[in-house]
Amino acid sequence: MFQNLAPAVKKETRFIAVSTAALTVLMILVFGVLHLIIPDKVPFDYTVILAAIGGCIVAVLNFALMAVTVQKVSSADDQKKAAGTMKASYTYRLLLQILWAIAAITAPCFQFIAGLVPLLFPGIAIKLRGLLQTDRKK
Question: Is the separation of the CB atoms in 24 and 118 below 8 Å?
């Protein structure tokens, strides 16, 4: 599935993977600092790290699957079929995130906030890069 990716798709997916992982590590560090400050309210144990890793994987996988789908439909001749493919991809990727959210919330081996927050990181990384690139162009 990921073999014949265009260089631009590989570059974007790599950017998302690295930035999401970096933001996840930062989030874990924030959990650690907050735990030192208010240990009664903020946990810091294996459940935080496990949930953070799981959320990071789901977030990166979601982006990668979207990128593969966009590349696939951009070369399609039939626009109706391409639209259907995009819609199906969106549905399955949303289902993946919902299933992860349910697992992160219900499974005792996950700290649910640490599992859900990384799902926001790809969007944050894209927005931050856009802001930083806009400032450089001025």
Answer: yes
Tokens of 118: 């990384």
Q: With beta carbons less than 8 A apart as the criterion, state whether 97 and 58 touch.
A: yes
- pLDDT higher than 70, residue 2: no
The DSSP secondary structure of 47-63, one letter per residue, reads HHHHHHHHHHHHHHHHH
The CA distance from 130 to 133, in Å, is 5
DSSP assignment of 102-124: HHHHH-TTS-HHHHHGGGGHHHH
Give Cα 8 to chain centroid, integer Å.
Answer: 18
Residues ≥6 apart with Cβ < 8 Å to 52: 24, 27, 28, 31, 114, 115, 117, 118
Q: Judge if pTM exceeds 0.90.
A: no
